[in-house]
UniProtKB/TrEMBL annotation:
Keywords: DNA-binding, Transcription, Transcription regulation. The keyword Nucleotide-binding does not apply. This is LysR family transcriptional regulator. Belongs to the LysR transcriptional regulatory family.
Amino acid sequence: MNISLRQLKAFVLVATLGNFTRAAERLHITQAGLSVMMREIEAQLGSRLFDRTTRSVTLTQAGHALLPVASAAVGQLDAVAGQIAAFGQVARKTLRIAATPLVSAHLMPEWFGTFAREHPDVDLRLVEAELEQVHALVEQGDADLGFGFFTKASHGIERTLLQSFRLMRVTAGGKRLSRKPMQGGITWDALRDEKLISLPPENPIQQLVETHLARIGRADEPRVVFRRFETLIGMAEAGLGAAIVPTFALPACRARAVRWDVLTHPEVTLGFHRIVKRGRAKPELWRQFTELAASSMRRIDAMADESAR
């Protein structure tokens, strides 16, 4: 029998998610490739592991027997690999970071520059990815730290809240790079008749926005959608409509001729987190970089406080 660790990880993920498509996305392989991996395991064991229909994937009796053994083996090997990686990382002083595009473009240059000056012997590496990919990179051990708005807890991932941010409306107006851009605060009721543009409906931040738009009868209506914050803010600047984004996006707004207004009644907050793989050793470098990031987050929140006055 020659079952690889990669195959065992894939089996555990399919069994946990109950879905081949989502498991393939998390593993960054095609669904067809994942199916081949599962057929290879089944061939070696001489038994079918899954019952598949067009709507569901369930474990067979053989699959149920294999799952606890495979989960334990994967968990133990990941834990040992994490410890070994931590030992090697201390020696090499490498810090691998995954972050969403807005963080990467507007915050990481400052963070990397400051950290590099204080730790010139550290090899800093950045992977720009969408939120789900950041999560997957950390979970698989391909990144040490991940940064973003992780709204849900996840088994195997440890979240640390760095700062809570409010939601704000961004519209065309203001003065590019102004020392004192136009700003203020408005209520959600003020959005009743305003043309809105948005992030995709599957975005967790947009889902939070929709719950509050529902209170004024505007949830889940057809809108022009843009995938990234920077594009959304740029389109607001161009007059295509008002965008609702976290005050975390203020650094991107300051480079554009836009007005921003913190939304009140109710004032809605969401948390910006650092994530790490649960069970991994946490070198001092991780703590130092996290403190640098948290300090930057507090300055952005203070900027939003000034805007709301």
